[in-house]
Amino acid sequence: MLPMQFKFFCPKWGLENLSFEEAAKKVKAVDYDGMEIAAAPAQSAEAIKVMRDHGLETILMAFGGGNKFPEHKTQFKKDLETIAAAKPLFINSHTGRDYFSHEQNAELIEVAMGVEKASGVKILHETHRGRFTYSAPATQHYFVTFPNLRLTADFSHWVNVSESLLDDQSENMERAIRHSDHIHCRVGHPEGPQVNDPRAPEWKYCLDAHLAWWDKIVALHQQQGKQTVTITAEFGPAPGYLPTLPYTNLPVASQWDVNVFMKDLLKTRYAKK
After folding, report:
1. Which residue in 82, 171, 75 sits closest to 119, CA to CA?
2. pLDDT (tens digit, 9 = 90+) per residue, 4-58?
């Protein structure tokens, strides 16, 4: 069996002040393999060209738009078609809404499957608060409806939603792991989707829980003979995801440094796989 290849991606999230060109040079300098980019659909082709010119691969993100279902569905299909036409490595989709019905979210999944079939570009659905995948138990129903549903595993959201490290939902997690094709290696905690600094010893128990899930995804891919695992180091920026000090609004850690740490941690961890 050939050794597995691991490809690490840096989010454009947090680098909004940089052009695609500047961002590409920055991530290339610290040995990322590519970027995961939430570009406007009309900028998809430009983003991919710039990344390719710097020897980087590109994951593009899709969101859809509008709070009313009919408008949302129309925009979602249009955005997916535009993004897929740019031929990213794959699309990471923030699909649906937690307040849409199961049937409505199922329609959006079917839209994504249609675009995937027509374009040949794989579309994954991120486990994320506010989407159809907002919690571990809620997502299980979609595995029944869509046995071939594939996920971007960002389990930090489920940790936050459940206010736990999901140790009482082992069957739900095992099922989700079997459906996971891409990893977002952000570490959540029971009261938030992102610890302030995963290097801090007080968060080791949360880091260890997430590492165990990621290890299982990697092991499963290896058992299935897959040659590549993709991982995005996706700790978010301040203000918002990264906590800040009151009054000064200064971030308590560096988003860039934390994401480089996570990339290097997993690169070392999986070096011999």
Report:
1. 82
2. 899 999 999 999 999 999 999 999 999 999 999 999 999 999 999 999 999 999 9
- For 166-215, the pLDDT digits (tens) are 999 999 999 999 999 999 999 999 999 999 999 999 999 999 999 999 99
- CA angle in degrees (0–180, nearest 5) for 162-11-113: 70
Q: Is 108 left (phi over 0), alpha (psi -120 to 50) or beta?
A: alpha
Cβ atoms within 10 Å of 265's Cβ, excluding its own: 16
> pTM higher than 0.70, yes or no?
yes
Is 5-269 assigned to CATH 3.20.20.150? Answer: yes
Determine contact, residues 7/57, Cβ cutoff 8 Å.
yes
What six digits make up the tokens of 220?
Answer: 């499963």
38 residue type, one letter = A
Give the C-alpha separation, 242 to 251, whole Å.
7
Give every CB contact of residue 181 below 8 A, 6+ residues apart in sequence: 90, 122, 124, 150, 151, 152, 230
User: For residue 151, what are its two tokens?
Assistant: 């996920």
